[in-house]
């Protein structure tokens, strides 16, 4: 009984699950390369204040008119979104949206 109202056992169990369970933070969420590419397109378009269709995914990000300060901000947001930390600037090894998203994304190909 809760506040004078009878509650079923399944409702009590569900309430307990909501209050006692915590998200698994041991593994970062797995994102596909397509999800990462879309996220990067959205962020870059937002920073450049342009339509995302104007962004070339296979061209270097720095060649598309964004300055280094915005890149630092986007990389920091990407780290937070992916739940990882880069040991160095990922754009040095993967300068385009396409290359970066493919390197970070889960394998999209069927096994």
The CATH architecture of the domain at 40-104 can be given as Orthogonal Bundle
Q: Report helical residue fraction.
A: 40-55%
What integer value in Å does the Rg equal? 21 Å
Ranges where pLDDT stays below 50 over 5 or more residues in a row are 10-25
**CATH homologous superfamily of the domain at 40-104, by name?**
ACP-like
- The fraction of residues in strands falls at under 5%
Along the chain, the helix and strand elements come as HHHHH
Largest sheet: none
Find the CATH topology of the domain at 40-104. Non-ribosomal Peptide Synthetase Peptidyl Carrier Protein, Chain A
Which shape, going by the Cα principal axes?
globular
Mean pLDDT: 79
| Oligomeric status | single chain
How many angstroms does the end-to-end distance come to?
51 Å
Q: How many runs of DSSP E, i.e. beta strands? A: 0
The first-level CATH class of the domain at 40-104 is given as Mainly Alpha
Number of helices: 5
What structural class results from the helix and strand content? mainly alpha
Domain Carrier: 31-108
Region (Disordered): 1-33
Organism: Symmachiella dynata
Protein name: Phosphopantetheine attachment site
Task: Outline the structure in words.
About 14% of the residues have low confidence. It is built from five helices and no strands. It has a domain of 65 residues: ACP-like (Non-ribosomal Peptide Synthetase Peptidyl Carrier Protein, Chain A), CATH 1.10.1200.10. It is globular. The longest helix has 16 residues. Helix 2 packs antiparallel against helix 5. Helices cover 50% and strands 0% of the residues. The protein is mainly alpha-helical and 111 residues long.
